[in-house]
């Protein structure tokens, strides 16, 4: 599959001119000129050509990685998926790319956007950029398969977390298959953690250390509403879970790491339980006929247990998020 430079230029120039004229760079830095943005176009071309050549060979087993990349590349070629330079994205390797689409589905073309920051040093740190592209391609693939479902995840933290895990899943497979054992590349600590965690525990370690969530607990909360059991049994299962979390004992002499991992179920429940509860409630009810869902009134015992979890988390909030950020920064080092 060919990606002529002129085709890519035509798709990028509109955005680069827009960025140069409308987006002010941060920290007082001068805005990049159109010419500076145009210099990044060959890097886009190199990235697309690399991913294309690696996955197009008939000798390569076609699995989730290849499907994600091939579908995305075809969508780019067909004009259904845009690639844009966005200088307003964070100036770091790990947040310098994203997938964006209109939540109202009014814009027919979603985009993978990247910061100039992660394109300029591509020759020095190619694995980060390639992995980031594959990650965003998986988001694009999910969207292209079912736009309405991905749009429906807006405002749903549990669905967003699961979509993010899907992307990390494909990214980890890509690293293991194309980068980890390639003598021409040296992967970063972040990529090492991601690949190892996928291989050893299917991303549970990565979820804990980089996303601060208990993956198994999140999976339970996601799957419970779809179980073929009564609402009463679902609530009983949730009550047992919350009772177990609330029975956690903390020791003032334990390490920050021990406290952090003890608090992780509190944080995961605090973030995701409201989604699970609403899904259970509306499984047998109509949002139109009963739009005002009252958690405390409908499930008072469960709500009380949830409130206690929120209070414990609040008491340790600063320590929890400080440790989580230090963990992320440790693995983001180059």
Structure characterization notes:
The chain is mainly α and 334 residues long. The protein contains 16 helices and three strands. It has helices spanning 5-22, 34-38, 41-56, 64-78, 116-119, 126-145, 147-152, 157-179, 189-201, 204-211, 215-223, 231-246, 256-281, 295-298, 300-315, 317-332, and strands at 82-85, 97-100, 111-114. It has a three-stranded mixed sheet. Helix 1 (5-22) crosses helix 3. The longest helix has 26 residues, at 256-281. Residues 1-30 have low confidence and may be disordered.
Can you describe this structure in just a few lines?
The chain is mainly alpha-helical.
Descriptive labels:
single chain, 334 residues, mainly alpha, 3-stranded mixed β-sheet, 16 helices, globular
Secondary structure: number of strands: 3
Radius of gyration: 22 Å
The parts where pLDDT drops under 50 for at least 5 residues are 1-30
Neighbour order of strands in the largest sheet: 1-3-2
Topology order in helix (H) and strand (E) letters: HHHHEEEHHHHHHHHHHHH
Helix/strand class? mainly alpha
Count of DSSP H/I helices: 16
- Outline: globular
Fraction of helical residues = 55-70%
- Amount of beta strand: under 5%
The separation of the N and C termini measures 33 Å
Mean pLDDT across every amino acid position: 88
- What is the makeup of the main sheet? 3 strands, mixed
């Amino acid at each position: 599959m060919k990606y002529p430079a002129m085709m890519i230029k035509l798709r990028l120039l509109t955005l680069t001119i827009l960025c140069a004229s409308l987006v002010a760079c941060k920290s007082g830095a001068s805005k990049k000129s159109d010419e500076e943005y145009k210099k990044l176009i060959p890097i886009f071309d190199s990235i697309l050509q690399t991913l294309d050549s690696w996955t197009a060979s008939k000798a390569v087993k076609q699995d989730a990685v290849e499907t994600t990349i091939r579908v995305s590349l075809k969508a780019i070629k067909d004009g259904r998926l845009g690639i844009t330079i966005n200088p307003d994205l964070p100036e770091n390797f790990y947040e310098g790319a994203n997938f964006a689409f209109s939540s109202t589905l009014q814009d027919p073309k979603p985009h993978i956007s990247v910061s100039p920051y992660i394109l300029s040093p591509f020759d020095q740190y190619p694995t980060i950029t390639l992995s980031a592209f594959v990650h965003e391609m998986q988001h694009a693939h999910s969207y292209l398969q079912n736009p309405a479902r991905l749009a429906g995840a807006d405002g749903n933290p549990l669905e967003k977390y699961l979509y993010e895990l899907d992307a990390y899943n494909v990214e980890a497979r890509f690293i293991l298959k194309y980068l980890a054992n390639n003598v021409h590349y040296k992967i970063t600590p972040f990529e090492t953690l991601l690949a190892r965690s996928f291989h050893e525990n299917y991303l549970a370690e990565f979820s804990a250390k980089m996303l601060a969530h208990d993956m198994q607990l999140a999976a339970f909360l996601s799957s419970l509403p779809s179980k073929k059991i009564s609402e009463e049994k679902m609530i009983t299962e949730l009550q047992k879970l919350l009772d177990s979390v609330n029975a956690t004992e903390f020791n003032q002499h334990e390490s920050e790491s021990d406290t952090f991992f003890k608090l992780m179920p509190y944080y995961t429940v605090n973030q995701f339980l409201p989604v699970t509860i609403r899904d259970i409630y509306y499984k047998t009810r109509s949002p139109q006929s009963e739009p005002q869902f009252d958690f405390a009134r409908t499930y008072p015992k469960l709500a009380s247990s949830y409130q206690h979890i929120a209070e414990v988390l609040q008491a340790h909030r600063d320590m929890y998020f400080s440790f989580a950020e230090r963990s992320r920064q440790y693995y983001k080092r180059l």
